[in-house]
Specification:
The protein has 258 residues and is α+β, with helices and mostly antiparallel strands. It has 2 domains: 63 residues, no CATH class; 176 residues, no CATH class. 21% of the residues lie in helices and 32% in strands. It is built from 8 helices and 16 strands. Strands 11-7-8-9-13-5-2-15 form an 8-stranded antiparallel beta sheet. The chain has a 3-stranded antiparallel beta sheet with strand order 1-16-14, with no helix packed on it. A hairpin with a 2-residue loop joins strand 8 and strand 9. The chain starts with a helix and ends with a strand.
Length: 258
C-alpha cells in the first residue's frame, strides 16, 4: 500500500503542467541536441533508419519525432489488410463485455471512459481493443491502419501519468485520465476509434494529417516522448492473425471485414 502511494505521488508530481513545460522547453532547445547520440545509444535506437543524419537534428525533440527513410516501414498491402499504426508492444483485449469494459494490469476500464462518450462506446460491445505501448526505442510517428474517412477528432484529459507497468498497475488510470487525441474513422461502412494517449514528461500529441480521406499507412500524427495508441473496433469487424508482442508500423495485423 505504501509503495502504491509513493509511486502515485511521484508520478502526479512529474505529471504537473509546470514540470512538463520545463521538460518541453529543454527538449526543444538547441542545448538538448548534445544528448542525441547518448540518448540513441542508451535506448538502442537504429539511427540508420532515420531520414537524416544525427547532426541534422537541432534538438532532442526533433530527433525523437524523426521521420524514417523511405522503405524503412513497408506497409502491408492486400484487400482488407489492417496494419499496425505504429511501432510498439501489442496487447489485444478480445470480446469486450456488453458495457464495453476491459481490464489492463488489474485495472478495469470502459470504452466510454476512454472516448468520453457512452453513446459512441456502445457500438464496441463484444468488439476488440488493441493497445500499442511505445517505448523510447520506437519510431514515434503514428499512422492510419486502413483506408478510411475521418469522421471526428477531439482531445480529452489533462494528466501525464506514465503508461507503463508501474503507471498501469498502481491505480493512476493513464488510459482514461491522460491527455489524448481521439479520432473516429470509418472504413467500408464500419466505424472504429483511433486514440493517441500522451504520457509522462512532455505529453505532446500533434496531428499532422488534416485530410478527411486517409490511406492505409499514411502518417497521422506524432508523440513527444512516452506514448500509447489504442484502437477500438466493433464486434466482427476485424480478424486478428498477427502474434501479440513487438510489432512495427505497417505490419499486417489482420483482416478488416466489410
Amino acid at each position: 500500500m505504501m509503495r502504491s502511494a509513493f509511486y502515485k505521488t511521484l508520478f502526479e508530481l512529474n505529471g504537473r503542467p509546470a514540470v512538463a513545460n520545463l521538460l518541453k522547453k529543454f527538449a526543444t532547445s538547441s542545448a538538448s541536441s548534445r544528448l542525441i547520440p547518448s540518448f540513441a545509444k542508451l535506448y538502442g535506437i537504429n539511427t540508420e533508419e532515420a531520414a537524416l543524419p544525427l547532426s541534422s537534428y537541432k534538438s532532442l525533440h526533433e530527433f525523437f519525432i524523426r521521420e524514417l527513410k523511405e522503405g524503412a516501414r513497408p506497409v502491408a498491402q492486400g484487400s482488407g489488410a489492417f496494419v499496425s499504426p505504429c511501432d510498439g508492444e501489442l496487447s489485444v483485449i478480445e470480446d469486450l463485455t456488453e458495457d464495453s469494459r476491459f481490464v489492463v494490469k488489474g485495472q478495469s476500464y470502459t470504452v466510454s471512459e476512454l472516448l468520453g462518450s457512452h453513446h459512441d462506446a456502445s457500438q464496441y460491445a463484444g468488439g476488440k481493443v488493441m493497445i500499442f505501448y511505445l517505448s523510447p526505442t520506437d519510431y514515434h510517428r503514428v499512422h492510419v491502419p486502413l483506408d478510411s474517412e475521418v469522421l471526428s477528432s477531439y482531445t480529452l484529459g489533462r494528466d501525464a501519468a506514465p503508461v507503463n507497468e508501474i503507471g498501469l498497475k498502481y491505480g493512476l488510470r493513464p488510459l482514461t485520465r491522460n491527455y489524448r487525441l481521439i479520432t473516429t474513422l470509418r472504413s467500408k461502412g464500419i466505424k472504429y476509434a483511433h486514440v493517441m494517449v500522451g504520457a509522462l514528461n512532455v505529453n505532446t500529441i500533434v496531428r499532422t494529417n488534416e485530410e478527411r480521406e486517409v490511406g492505409r499507412g499514411e502518417a497521422f500524427g506524432y508523440f513527444s516522448f512516452g506514448s500509447t495508441v489504442v484502437v477500438c473496433v466493433p464486434k466482427g469487424a476485424l480478424s486478428i492473425d498477427a502474434p501479440k508482442g513487438k510489432i512495427r508500423m505497417g505490419q499486417r495485423l489482420g483482416t478488416w471485414h466489410s
